[in-house]
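Supplementary Methods. Inverse-folding protocol.

Structures were first reduced to a discrete structure-token string of length 386. This string, shown here, constituted the complete conditioning input.
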């Protein structure tokens, strides 16, 4: 017979699944200091998501007690916004192995996590256990060790048992939040499907009643990749909810950033109308936008002149989410990475947000311009959910 605590956790998880259905929120990643309530109100959403870089706090680069980003999240919660929150563990960029269980380093890092939860935890509605760990972890820690243990999976389990679950159980006067494991990006890639830690984390989400489901990231070249990522996940975790805290056409934008503006007849017409050199590359035009700002009309016209562009792509994501049991999705409100000196290898994240405070000229009243590629569809989606 299962212990009562196990049955209760399973019951609470099942009930909470019915409470979170088709929510659309605003994503701030590790830059919540840019959160602005006035623009959140324009977006129509009632949810925000953030994943601060926890190792920056552990190294003293950020203040646990007085961090502007976390203060913005707390203020948003006090004004009625719901919060999806978790930590980003950047081990790989530091060439750092995951600490061993019970080691002084693990003890130190878990102490920092507890301190941060004491600050932000009272305002958390959904907790995400990790952020892109398959990109932020060294390969050695994503494969079984000599004893058959996968260090990354063990680290997730220990976070849950040593820090996250004890904190939220002790949190007074508030319901226990849903906890999602992840977030795993690029599960449509065969190389990601073959990493032992990825399948093991999905199995952990499937088998542990304390975990509500999985968090996926979908930055795609085409919508076939969305189907493949969901298929891989659902083969292991058939029923539990999925949340998608990041999604975009980023890979599609990357694939065409070196195209010439005038490579098609519609592109030639665009270049003529806006007095741009038809031989200019898309990335070069983006650099001009990021440095000087272009009108929303030119921005929309440039992307609409691309034969590969998918109009109203948020609606296609929406349909895929409904088909695959996605309960929460979050999408960027503001631009974060926005290179002014674009090269053929520069990222294109700045195309996604629903407000383009750097790439688009401000409105006559001085406010940031909405992204014509995504703003209206986001608002319609949010209005149906929040």
């Amino acid at each position: 017979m299962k212990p009562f605590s196990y049955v209760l956790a399973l019951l609470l998880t099942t009930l909470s699944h019915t409470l979170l259905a088709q929510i659309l929120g605003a994503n701030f990643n590790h830059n919540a200091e840019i959160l602005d309530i006035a623009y959140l109100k324009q977006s129509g959403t009632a949810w925000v998501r953030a994943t601060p870089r926890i190792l920056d706090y552990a190294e003293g680069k950020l203040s646990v007690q007085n961090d502007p980003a976390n203060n913005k999240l707390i203020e948003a919660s006090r004004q009625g916004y719901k919060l999806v929150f978790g930590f980003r563990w950047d081990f790989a960029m530091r060439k750092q192995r995951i600490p061993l269980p019970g080691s002084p380093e693990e003890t130190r890092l878990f102490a920092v996590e507890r301190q941060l939860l004491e600050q932000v935890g009272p305002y958390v509605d959904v907790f995400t256990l990790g952020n892109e760990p398959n990109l932020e972890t060294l390969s050695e820690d994503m494969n079984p060790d000599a004893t058959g243990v996968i260090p990354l999976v063990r680290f997730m389990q220990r976070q849950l048992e040593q820090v996250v679950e004890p904190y939220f159980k002790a949190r007074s006067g508030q319901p226990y939040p849903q906890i999602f494991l992840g977030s795993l990006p690029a599960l449509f890639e065969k190389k990601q499907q073959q990493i032992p830690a990825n399948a093991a984390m999905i199995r952990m989400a499937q088998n542990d009643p304390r975990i509500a489901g999985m968090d996926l990231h979908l930055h795609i070249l085409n919508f076939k990749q969305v189907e493949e990522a969901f298929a891989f996940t659902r083969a292991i975790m058939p029923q539990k909810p999925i949340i998608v805290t990041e999604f975009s056409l980023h890979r599609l934008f990357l694939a065409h950033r070196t195209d010439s503006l005038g490579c098609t007849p519609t592109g030639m017409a665009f270049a003529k109308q806006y007095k741009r050199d038809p031989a200019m590359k898309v990335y070069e035009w983006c650099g001009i936008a990021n440095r000087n700002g272009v009108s929303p009309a030119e921005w929309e016209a440039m992307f609409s002149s691309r034969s590969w562009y998918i109009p109203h792509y948020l609606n296609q994501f929406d349909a895929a989410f409904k088909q695959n049991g996605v309960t929460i999705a979050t999408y960027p409100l503001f631009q974060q990475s926005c290179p002014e000196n674009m090269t053929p290898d520069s990222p294109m994240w700045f195309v996604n947000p629903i407000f383009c405070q750097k790439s688009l000229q401000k409105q006559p009243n001085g406010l940031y311009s909405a992204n014509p590629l995504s703003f209206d569809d986001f608002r319609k989606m949010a209005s149906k959910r929040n």
